[in-house]
Design goal:
- The chain is of the alpha+beta class.
- A 6-stranded antiparallel beta sheet has the order 6-9-10-11-8-7. The chain has a 5-stranded mixed beta sheet with strand order 3-2-1-4-5, sandwiched between helices.
- The chain folds into 4 domains: 10-58; 73-119; 146-301, Ribonuclease H-like superfamily/Ribonuclease H (Nucleotidyltransferase, domain 5, 2-Layer Sandwich); 326-388, no CATH class.
- It is built from 10 helices and 11 strands.
């Protein structure tokens, strides 16, 4: 059973690596739970399954089966008709009681809330009480949690306009790790910083981020009772889930105080050094930052972590980071073996084993350096030629 051959997705491979690391004692159950966005009990169950079944243990047992508690579609339709008809003014709890008492339909008020709020029904919005936050301790191991943030500033002096420094640093040691200068903070710049980080150090346990649109969905509905949660993952969230890297989002700049203070320290030191060396463009500044300034700064200001054992996870063997750290879009191939992407048509050349790719679903990978790759789920990378529409 343990040695049976299975095929895992990239996300399942990352999950298996984290669980295996916990089994070997290199990570605690709590650390593995944070990386996988699971509870400690779920991680304990996964460990037992992996011990019994090997890599197949990370595949969910319900895969391919409908949920056992799924509500019958006809029952759901009847409930929605009642909720939009005679019980339109009822709140969720009152409606649940009435449906059970008068119609014999047992449904929880939470399920009703999930069904009806997107349709414009609901009670008063819930207001959370304000919390009092205490000073947060550093993580105990290097690589356990990183900051990634953009710092707009006049890095090249007052005679130049603002430029953004994308910088990642480690919470446990306070060390800056890698950074990049560019005109403004965006998704592709963050992907490039992650690419350089992961190639050099491995995969961290988590990122502590602000709520920038390149990291998480910031769109909200306009209706008073419309669901206020993220509807789908951003490209950055999807990539980190595939790699098993947890994302922690701060509600204020003060919550990420160490990362913010590091940016302030850079603004006080790095500007002068760039001016001293006559550096006035992003490419030269990025090179100087990573080759000279960061190593010297880390040697001077880094602190020793409480636990000297690093928490970095090695990359999976054969993993192509560029195929993960990118924006992904689905396209349907036309009858003339072409697809359209961002106003440009691409002629696809089918592999030798097939005559055409018409009607096939392909994935367009937009990499952080601006290049594109078109991937078919069965045939892999597809050769293409670009021409204007």
């Amino acid at each position: 059973m343990k040695n049976r051959e299975v095929t895992l997705t990239l996300r399942q491979v990352s999950r298996f690596q984290v669980v295996q690391s916990a089994l070997e004692g290199r990570h605690t159950n709590a650390q593995a739970a944070g990386a996988l966005s699971l509870s400690v009990r779920q991680v304990q169950r996964l460990k037992r399954r992996v011990e019994r079944e090997g890599p197949a243990g990370v595949i969910h047992g319900n895969k391919g089966h409908p949920p056992a508690n799924k509500t019958d579609p006809q029952v759901k339709e009847r409930i929605l008709q009642l909720a939009e008809g005679p019980y339109e003014e009822y709140n969720f709890s009152h409606l649940a009681d009435t449906l059970e008492d008068d119609h014999g339909l047992t449904i929880s008020d939470e399920t009703l809330r999930l069904w009806l709020r997107p349709l414009g029904h609901g009670g008063k919005p819930y207001r959370r009480k304000k919390k009092h936050y205490l000073r947060r301790k550093r993580r105990d191991r290097e690589g356990k949690m990183l900051f990634l943030d953009g710092s707009p500033h006049r890095w090249f002096g007052e005679d130049h306009g603002p430029t953004c420094l994308l910088l990642s640093s480690d919470d446990a040691t306070g060390k800056p790790l890698w950074g990049k200068f560019q005109p403004q903070e965006n998704r592709d710049g963050c992907f490039e910083v992650c690419y350089q980080l992961f190639k050099r150090f491995g995969l961290p346990g988590a990122f502590y981020l602000d709520r920038g649109s390149q990291f998480t969905t910031t769109r909200r509905g306009g209706s008073r009772y419309e669901v206020k949660s993220d509807q789908e993952d951003t490209h950055f969230e999807r990539a980190m889930k595939d790699l098993g890297v947890a994302l922690i989002f701060a509600n204020s700049p003060q919550a990420r105080g160490r990362g913010e203070r590091l940016n302030g320290s850079f603004q006080g030191r790095l500007v002068n050094e760039l001016k001293l060396h006559g550096i006035e463009n992003c490419e030269e500044a990025t090179r100087y930052l990573n080759r000279t300034f960061i190593p010297r700064y880390a040697k001077r200001f880094a602190v020793e972590p409480a636990d000297p054992e690093p928490a970095w996870r090695p990359l999976a063997e054969g993993l192509d980071l560029r195929s993960v750290l990118c924006a992904k879009f689905e396209r349907t191939v036309g009858n003339d073996n072409t697809i359209s992407f961002q106003g440009v048509a691409y002629q696809l050349y089918p592999p030798k084993t097939v005559h055409h790719l018409a009607k096939a679903k392909v994935e367009v990978q937009q990499h952080f350096d601006g290049s594109l790759r078109i991937v078919h789920p069965r045939y892999g990378v597809i050769q293409s030629k670009r021409f204007s529409l």
